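Quick one, tokens below:
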């Protein structure tokens, strides 16, 4: 990971986690108007690594956003470490706005299947965070401010992959469940049976088993279904050799 540029490291942290701490500013009618307000949210990422949220319009953080769209999201990958402060985390700054794109909805619900039960409620809405910059702490002494152009993945030329993503996921889970299991256990060191693929983006694939998630990175970025297939075949061959 140390050989990667800070933006790529930050995206790796963000893509590997399925939740974040959302900080908004308390709205004007509240006693603590202007004070920071932090809450836990489920998160997914778009193909360019822009955060996607599903939040209730009745929640304080959503009401805060209606008054001031500025947010900060903390993605924490230090969970489970004996010394958490040695682990990586990323604070993303930007503005959140409501999105009605069906692709954003599909990507979020694939990442969080349990959210489907309330995603259709009138008081819930999807939001996309337009990042302005991020602060990466990758361990002691490895601290970087990252501008949006270096944080986000350039999705130019990858529209075909985004369009094919649902079919790729369905195909892998229906016809190659054994390969998905090998990715999780032999390449990523995970335990348990029944791992499923929930997302494919240019930089890798997302896996899930119940409440656990895992990130399968690609060596070469994928831009369409065929290049994703090449990477997935290469990785399953690597997994079968890792006995």
């Amino acid at each position: 990971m140390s050989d990667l540029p800070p933006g790529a490291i930050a995206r790796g942290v963000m893509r590997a986690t399925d939740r974040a701490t959302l900080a908004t500013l308390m709205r004007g009618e509240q006693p603590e108007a202007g004070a920071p307000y932090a809450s836990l949210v489920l998160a997914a990422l778009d193909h360019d690594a822009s955060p996607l949220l599903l939040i209730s319009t009745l929640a304080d953080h959503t009401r805060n956003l209606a008054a001031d769209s500025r947010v900060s999201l903390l993605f924490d990958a230090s969970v489970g470490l004996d010394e958490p402060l040695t682990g990586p985390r990323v604070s993303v700054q930007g503005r959140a706005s409501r999105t009605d794109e069906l692709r954003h909805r599909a990507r979020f619900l694939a990442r969080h299947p349990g959210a489907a039960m309330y995603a259709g409620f009138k008081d819930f809405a999807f939001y996309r965070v337009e990042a302005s910059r991020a602060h990466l702490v990758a361990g002691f002494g490895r601290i970087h401010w990252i501008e949006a152009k270096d944080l986000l993945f350039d999705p130019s030329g990858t529209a075909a992959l985004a369009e094919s993503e649902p079919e790729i996921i369905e195909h892998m889970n229906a016809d190659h469940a054994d390969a998905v299991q090998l990715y999780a256990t032999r390449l990523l060191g995970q335990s348990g049976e029944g791992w499923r693929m929930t997302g494919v983006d240019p930089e890798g694939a997302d896996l899930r088993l119940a409440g656990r998630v895992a990130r399968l990175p690609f060596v070469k970025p994928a831009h369409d279904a065929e290049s994703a297939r090449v990477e997935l075949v290469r990785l399953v061959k690597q997994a079968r050799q890792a006995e």
